[in-house]
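[audit] Reproducing an earlier prediction to check determinism. Same input, same settings, fresh worker. If the tokens differ from the archived copy the diff job will pick it up downstream; this log only records the rerun itself.
[audit] input (697 residues):
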Amino acid sequence: MSQNILQYESKVWSTADLLIGAGIKQSDFPKYMMPYFAIIMLESRLVRHYKELLKDFDAETIKDIENIDDFLEEFKDYNIGYNDLVIRSQKTLAEICRNDKTFDNDFDSYLKAFDPETKELLGVDRGNTEEKYLDISGVSGQLRKKDILFDTVKKWSEIDLTPFNNSDITTLEEHIKRKWADISAETAGEQYTPDDIISLISEIILSKIEDKNEFLTIYDPTCGGGNLLFGVEDRIKEKFNRPTKTYGEDWSDSLYALAKIESRFRNDSDIRYGNTLTKIHFIEKQFDVIVANPPYGVDWKGYRKDIENDTTERFHALPSISDGQFLFTQHILSQLDTKGLSVVVHNGSTLFSGDAGSGESNIRKYFFDNDWVEAIIQMPTDEFFNTGIYTYLWIFNKNKAEERKDKVILIDGSNFWEPLKKSKGKKRREMVFDNRKTIVDTLTDFKDTEHAKVFDKWHFYYNKQAIMLTNVDENGKTFEDQLPVKKNKQGEEIRAKSIKLNPTKITQVVEEETIELTDFEITSYDTSKYNSLIEYYAEGVKPLINSLDYKEADLKVFTAKTSYYFDADKETIIEVSKDDKTELGCGKIVVKASYKKATKTKEARIEISVELTPDYEKDYEIIPYSPNEEENQQNIADFMAKYITKPFAYIDNTIGVEINFNKVFYKPEQLRSLQEITSDLGDLENDLKQLEQELAL
């Protein structure tokens, strides 16, 4: 019957005709359609249940029942929602639309006849409350202003879903939500996962779990309207006879409401409203299966304090403030059972964003250190409704088979797709059954193929080794050799960090103006330009000193007997004395200005000093990693011996983790042979000659 119900898709969508005529933007259609769609789904299910319950009471209508209260009590016990007007009086939406004169009062009574929870979800008379959910009262008010409320509700009332069961209605709901996703990335589409990807995720899960008589708990912390969560549950039930219980959370008012309404027509489902990152509703739970398509490229600035002060210990590290998808993934793994399986949709940034030591890299390292990553699968582009970028499925498994310990398989599924006959938003491709089967079989086999590669997890680790290089001149000489060495009290040799000069004059030409400094302890200033000595320091002296560049040969520092400058060609400091020039080695001439406050013996002053220092430069080298500490240190030492020629000192080493799909599956373009190119050029020359001959005739 599912195929028959899809005939109603066009009927549902035709209700938008009135919105177009009222000047409502297409991107706002979901806001104006969701509440009424929810009502017809609800009403049809309530009416169907009413008819089924009548059979249990051996009655044709509620009027035939001797004790109506017993009937109503039993109806309410099913916890699927309730509308007193529909059940007690059989006054449906279609009935109240028969009379446009009484419609306003009847529609208001109809909405208020729902049970309290349903009224809350629909947004009946929510006023100024923070959560309006589907905001039926607000939306209806807007349509009333545009004078199309009655016509809109009447059009919706003509869609009769009572002949269809819950599964059929769910199928229609998913198609409508997909349609909304086509037009609005800000509402339903933000969290919508296409049917073919839901099927792939389900088939991956089915390949990993057993068909046994034990409850399978399934959780989605960013469940949106529930399409992924309930879609996975339905596909599991299609194949296995295993009892399931679903849990979900979402922070979108309207999507939460749709998922919550849907959950009441399922055997065992618990959907909660709220921000998963700031409040854990199921803190006591550990789930067998977790699926999620968390928002990516969305910042978490608005609840930064809550995240940074989180006491649950679920966040091992924090990603960039501009993208919170790895926060959701850490939360997922904190609630995944010790034998659990999770499939999470991400964009490409989670594979490589952030340098070693960054939040993203440390999060990846945390996942790999715990050996939770079993596979990463690259999806085709143009697969999702709102984006054409590559997306990836991360497969987390806390119960890896022994032969898969410390191993990860990368699967390139980017070419496994068929074109859609008609694009759905940005979705132009789909993964048909054979495409999905190839991926699932590859994951099951866990072997290298043309489109898959198995790695030791350590392959993705790397050393980011920081070193302090000592720069040398053209002769390999560093100014460090000129520094005096003294012994401390323990007898250890300590080398000075610099040689301080006693300058008499500093000169340099800056922008064709010669700067000459001869006063190195300044106590006076031009009172017509500056209000104080400290202002003269900040606005006059300091900028002047900062403009001096020792690498320019015309910066000269004079002392009583010598002068100094830097020879950029030889990369060395030159000391000039009366008789000779000496190359001191590669170093820096550092000119500094500092403000000194007044003391009991000295007045406030600006001091200008000069010192000669070695030229040190911090650098980083990316070096392959080994989990064996001794071998890893040898890797670093061998790399340095091979590639670093200057003197250096080790600083700190940071371990990073990065996954590069392009590098693993890159196929270089096959270049043509020289003979082929020469042959083609010869053919072109012959063609040109022939053309010239034809033109000459």
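[audit] rerun output stored. Observation attached for the diff report: The first helix runs from residue 2 to 5.
[audit] end
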